[in-house]
Design brief:
The protein is mainly alpha-helical. Helices cover 77% and strands 5% of the residues. The longest helix has 42 residues, at 36-77.
């Protein structure tokens, strides 16, 4: 009960103080200095110096990464063709008269090499299990 009495006294005197001070809180006609242009102008400058270069860098990095991933995917599907596609030199002509590139000329030997590699890996895996 003692604490409740103290609480009500604090509340009552706070309300009285607010009631007496309200006449000082009423707005009066005066000149107000507008300084928000300081941070508004500097915000645009800070944005263009910090955020824009970082955004451009990440956009460039994303494009370079996607280009690199595409090159890796193309190289994985046909390594010899991918390497030779940059020069696109013609090795000869087929029976039908079409140009034969280096990729077409060595495709069979490349396939054979991949089969031999696969068999070798499988043999080593089988030996490690025993």
């Amino acid at each position: 009960l003692k604490n409740l009495k103290k609480g009500f006294q604090l509340l009552l005197f706070t309300a009285l103080a607010f009631f007496f001070i309200t006449r000082y809180l009423k707005p009066k006609a005066k000149i107000q200095l507008d300084t928000d242009w300081l941070y508004r102008r500097s915000a645009n400058l800070a944005w263009s110096w910090t955020v824009v270069p970082v955004t451009r860098f990440f956009a460039w990095w994303e494009k370079a990464s996607w280009d690199w991933a595409g090159d890796v995917a193309r190289a994985g599907s046909d390594p010899v063709g991918w390497l030779r596609s940059r020069s696109a030199e013609v090795v000869g002509t087929s029976d039908s008269g079409d140009a034969v590139t280096a990729s077409m000329a060595v495709r069979a030997s490349m396939t054979l090499m991949m089969v031999i590699l696969l068999v070798t890996v499988l043999i080593f895996m089988a030996r490690s299990l025993v």
